[in-house]
Amino acid sequence: MQITTTRSSNPVSDERLAEILANPGFGVHFTDHMFTVEWTPDAGWHDARIEPYGPLSLDPATAVLHYAQETFEGMKAYRHEDGSVWSFRPEENAARMERSSHRLALPVLPVEDFVQAVQALVEIDQRWVPEAAGEKSLYLRPFMFASEAFLGVRPSQHVTFMVIASPAGSYFKGGVKPVSLWLTEEYTRAGRGGMGAAKTGGNYASSLVAQQEASSHGCDQVVFLDAQEGTYVEELGGMNMYFVYADGRIVTPETGTILEGITRSSIIELAGKMGHQVEERKFAIEEWKQGVASGEIVEIFACGTAAVVTPVGSLKWDGGEVGTPEGGDELWKRIRQELVDVQFGRAEDGFGWMKQLV
What we know:
Layout: E1 4-5, H1 14-22, E2 33-40, E3 44-52, H2 64-67, E4 70-72, E5 75-79, E6 85-88, H3 90-103, H4 111-124, E7 137-146, E8 159-168, E9 179-183, H5 201-216, E10 221-225, E11 233-236, E12 240-245, E13 250-253, H6 262-273, E14 278-281, H7 285-294, E15 297-304, E16 308-317, E17 320-322, H8 331-343, E18 354-356
Parallel strand pairs: 1-3, 9-10, 9-16, 13-14
Antiparallel strand pairs: 2-3, 2-8, 4-7, 5-6, 5-7, 6-18, 7-8, 10-11, 12-13, 12-15, 15-16, 16-17
Helix pairs in contact: 3-4
């Protein structure tokens, strides 16, 4: 893409930026610029630009506001000790957005253009990438939406792709702790042929009421079962799951109706390299309950871009509870450390996962 750049005339001061990066939180502060490119059937992708970060002006009839035709990605930029800035498997995020775009009837942004857009924004806003201490990073949010002002139910004839960025602190304040889970038996997230494997806002909107249910029962996250039989574990509100057995096997729910996480696939590769057999298959909720009770399941953990890897504690449901698995050797911790060390340049990248942006 040919990208034009208009620099902000009022960037955040160095003093204010230092304050933000000292305690960035998550999704609260945004960098000085944003990337935009537009699509129409006649012109294709065009008018790629970086310009000052600011509000969008949308017609009340803008299609995405009515029919939720949109996709997004979540990824990070990491500052290495030598000052360079890297991303983790950005081509996989681009490929997943391609798959999501097909499912949402949106135009496909080529992988190389996606990566170029992310890199261009990070280059101009590189001062916003925090130092690695405390697992700080720059969170990147590429997203695409139906921007045509039209109320008919059909694929939009004007689409906008953007990238914005936000400095992020560690997901865990005070150290990593096991998350407690609530099993929702009333709500499901996606069915066969639905949009569960697409990273689209509707999937997250459908999880919110179940997350409220979990919170009302004192739990951190919600567990969804399959929509067809209500038997098989699918995913959490925003994370994929792994179950470690006493013999070293690891089971993770198969995809198809759940999101194919980038961290998820990386853990499958990494665990295999560490000598563990990883099974991707249907995993019944009863296997979870009985496996923990018998001691056959010794460890459970979840993963996602924000948390990387987190251990899972107790599981509660209406009328019952199963406690935290015992007998594991904290495989989650070794996997998490390996991933984080690769991302921040403290360990050799034996898989070729990292791409230098700056």
